[in-house]
Amino acid sequence: MIRLTLLHRIREDILSGKAVVLLLVTVALMCASTALTVGELQRRQKIYEAGAAAQEDLAPLLNRPELLSVLIHGVDADIYEGKSVAGTKVERVPPAAYENPLLALFPTPDLGFIVQYILSLFALMMAFDVAAGPKERRTLSLVFSNPVSRTGFFLGQCAGSYLSLALAFLLGLFGSVAILVAMDAGNVDGAALLRIAGIAVVSLLYLGVFFMVGAMISASTASSARAFVASLLTWTVLVLVLSQSLMLLAGHLRRVPSIEVVTAETNAARNQILAKENAFRTEWPKANQATEAIENRYARQVAAQERWMKAAARTSPAGSYQLATAVLAGTSSENAERYLDEVRAYLSRLRRFVYVEMEQNPKAEQPVFFRRGDTLASLLARAASDAALLVGWLALFGFLALRRFQRYDLR
Amino acid sequence: MFLTLFRKEVLLQLLSSRFVFSVVIGTLLLTGSSWVLLHDHGDDVRSYRQFEAEHARQIGSYETGADTPLGALSMGGRIVDRRPPELAFLISGVYRALPKSFWLSNFDGPTPETNLVGNRLRELFAAVDFRFVVGVIFSLLALLLSYDAINGERQSGTLKLTLTNPVSLRTFLFAKWASLNAVLAIAFLLAFLLSLGLALFSPAVSLSGAGMLRLALIAAISLLYLAVFVTLGLLVSTIFRDPYPAVSAALLVWVLLVYVIPGAAPYLAAMREPEPDYVRTATARQDRLGYDYREIRKSYLARGLSKKEATAATRKYWSEVVEPLWAANVARNNEQFLNQKSRVVERGRSLARVSPYGGFSFAVTELALVGAGEQLRFERAVERYRRTFHEFIREQQALGRDKEVRASDVPPFRFESRAAAGQDVLVEVAVLAAFVLLFFSAAFVKMLRYDVR
User: Fold this and answer.
1) Residue B122's closest CA among A321, A262, A107, A327?
2) How far is CA A199 from CA A170, A203, A310, B232, B377, in A?
3) Which run of H or of E encompasses A13?
4) What pLDDT score was predicted for residue A75?
5) Contact, B135 vs A240, CB < 8 A?
6) A156-165, A359-368, B193-202, B381-390 — which is least confidently predicted?
7) Chain B within 8 Å of A95 (Cβ-Cβ)?
């Protein structure tokens, strides 16, 4: 019986004007966004290659643009890249927004963004009438005059609607990957495909959560219009309000000084050590140690703040979704920070080499920068907790929806 | 009759659960974000004062004694800082995301002065501030208040009942429009005034007269912006006979106007070559154009000058020919970078104006002096100051290369924000007003032939 309802619902949905419009909009948006972000990736690849060609000794230190930043922009764009000034100093390339200030005003409309904000709305639009719709059309009591269980009918309805949404998303994703391959932005290998599959699974889970929110509200209200408004308000809270405002609060509770303040502090510490007569030559290692100590302390403070903010973000499915997809795409904040830590550790090593080891042994070998990459398994493991949270949300709302429908007034 | 309808509508809306929800969400978000941003703003103001004093007596980031060699000052350069805009407690804009301190020297810079990276998570999630709360949350609430204004009444049959009184459909539409705007304005002003109240009690904020005027303009533009979405809701409620398709269509348009168009604008604006490239600029301006002091001196010696004469001639050639060429190269590259950035911002601004949220964002961030345009004006001021600094070094060098100067003798950096910012946003205001007019006349035309059954 589930199968019958499901097939009926799929036929009904896929042929309805609403589903066709949503499908077309979804595919068009996803493909357009990929075309836009591939251009941005290619721009950054060009900059990376020019930098690597111009400064051979620094080339291994540079951050190669991440291919999947096309799908999930994350924090990849303005990561620490190197530029040689006066030998051992490496400067940070300013954030991408320094070159294009508009980037600081509006979020990047990448695939993750489309799923998070737009497709979740579509999920509500598909789900809000699973119960209230047939009731308004007066077919609900007719259905239950047959030997149909409520659970079976409800699950069939939900699965049918959800499948047409999932189809739209998968078609859009397929189009995006096709554009990625066609525009020859990079090598889409097996590992990349697996990560894309991971992003797809997390996205489908996320959409499932909102679908179930819609279904639950649909099974709790008598009219579909009211169900829709109620689910929209819930969407507003879950997607726009909850995680962002709690993150703001969490960041405030674990405040860290601004980077300008810490820079001034490191300058002051260094100046104090170098203030002695002729200290410039002898006291350098000590001055470097002092600044490194401050920088490491700051990095620890920031990491603690980020832990709090992540916990706050996980209060809503939207936060979990964003964290999980960024991890899978390799554009998460912890990825960026680990890279920075590695660069910082290497630079500290390099300074010791220049100021201490070279003095003692001019033939000493220069240390080599080694970047620890992520294995696929470690990426999946780190995304697993957020995916589990999404499964939890899905189970919660699914359970509530089913419960509500069991007692739904058919008249 | 208009007044009766208006009063009835306002009262009805004020008592609705949607309105209560709007007020609660809007007020909580706006006051909460202002409260957090006020603390950040206080920190910014304090550290700015500290930096301003410190950087005035430093060469680059190094402490200096009373008298410093001219050469050290020329190479070491200065750090200049941007004063926190007084309305940054309300709107983050680009101010928070972009460099506020720059280093510059005789033949290099401006370069953002910090090598550290702060919290990266903030880049993943949208910043909650006035622009987000009004631009995204309130605009959605505006649609939710108005999407069933006409067709809801038709569906429940009250429209027919209303029209049995001596009232035209036009008056009815006007009354609906006016009352919805009034109700939304009440919700907005409540949240806005509460967050301003928070600011008044904060020691970090001391509003000038110009600041007050800017706040008033920001409030007025916000109301105009919300009117766009109220009118859009009204329009869909006349186009669609039932509330559900109306709200779906309104949502699609909302997503397009608030997220898709403004999000694509920065990328579309940067597509046309040549795009601003900081690394290229910073590398190109350090190009020493192939001049070598020793080679020049050798060529003078080869011409038969004595060692002393050759040194003097090389010095003269160096300061009269080589250094002006270097200075011109640095200035040209910086100018090019700034011009390319200006073009990107201008193009993006005109692209984003197609959507009310884009126009609104530009208008309020520029009015609060935290926008992209104001940041560029600041960067131009820094570049102008770099030239002043260069001139100062040249003047001092003319008096003697081995001279010592005080760091405090260097001309100070000044950046005054624009006095009249109202004109900057005239186009945005006009476009927003045009949106209201367009949507309203469409609704009006629809209403002329509305089937009330």
Assistant:
1) A107
2) 11, 6, 19, 35, 41
3) helix A2-15
4) 79
5) no
6) A359-368
7) yes
CA distance A351 to B3: 78
Residues B170-197 as b or e (16 or more Cβ within 10 Å = b) = eebbbbbbbbbbebbbbbbebbbeebbe
Chain B contact present for A208, CB below 8 A: no
| Average pLDDT rounded to a whole number, residues B51-80 | 80
Confidence of residue A313 (pLDDT cuts 50, 70, 90): very high
Interval B136-166: pLDDT, tens: 999 999 998 898 888 888 888 888 888 888 8
Lowest mean pLDDT: which of B220-234, B261-275, B323-337? B261-275
In this prediction, residue A86 carries a pLDDT of 39
Which residues, listed in sequence order, are joined to residue B81 by a DSSP beta bridge? Answer: B101
Calculate ∠ Cα B47-B51-B54, nearest 5°.
140
Q: pTM for this structure?
A: 0.90
DSSP B210: H
Any CB–CB contact under 8 A between A280 and chain B? Answer: no
Q: What is the DSSP string of A197-222?
A: HHHHHHHHHHHHHHHHHHHHHHTT-S
Contact B338/B251 with Cβ under 8 angstroms? Answer: no
Structure token pair of residue A153? 């009918």
**B321, burial (CB in 10 Å: exposed 0-12, middle 13-18, buried 19+):** exposed
pLDDT > 90 fraction of chain B, expressed in percent and rounded:
40
Are A216 and A199 a contacting pair, CB within 8 Å? no
What average pLDDT does range A184-205 have in this prediction?
90
> Who contacts A74 (Cβ-Cβ below 8 Å, separation ≥6)?
A66, A326, A329, A330, A331, A332, A333, B123, B124
pLDDT of A207: 95
| Nearest residue, CB atoms, A80 vs list B111, B113, B117 | B117
CB contact at 8 A, B205 and B199: yes
Contact A94, B99 (CB under 8 A): yes
Contact B98 A97 (CB under 8 A): yes
Token duo for residue A69: 């930043």
R_g over Cα of chain B: 29
Find residue A29's DSSP bridge partners. none
The type of residue at A6 is L
CB within 8 Å of A374: residues ≥ 6 apart: A330, A335
Neighbouring C-beta atoms of residue B387, cutoff 10 Å: 14
Show Cβ contacts of residue B324 under 8 Å, excluding neighbours closer than 6 positions: none
Q: Is B61 helix (H, G, I), strand (E, B) or coil?
A: coil
Write the DSSP assignment of B108-131 as a string of letters: S--EES------SHHHHS---SHH
DSSP string, B260-297: IHHHHHHHHHTTSSSPP-HHHHHHHTT--TT--HHHHH
d(CA A274, CA A283): 6
Tens-place pLDDT, residues A1-30: 667 777 777 777 767 777 788 889 899 999
Residues of chain A positioned with their CB less than 8 A from the CB of B256: none
* DSSP code per residue over B287-342: --TT--HHHHHHHHHHTT--HHHHHHHHHHHIIIIIHHHHHHHHHHHHHHHHHHHH
Check if the beta carbon of residue A167 is closer than 8 Å to that of residue A159.
no
Residues of B within 8 A of A111 (CB-CB) are none
Closest C-alpha to A80, from A96, A67, A69: A96
Number of C-beta neighbours around residue B350 at 10 A: 16
Per this entry, what is the length of chain B? 453
- A102 to chain B, any CB pair closer than 8 A? The answer is yes
In angstroms, what separates the C-alpha of A252 from chain B's closest C-alpha?
Answer: 7
Q: Tell me, rounded to whole angstroms, the distance of Cα A293 from its chain centroid.
A: 31
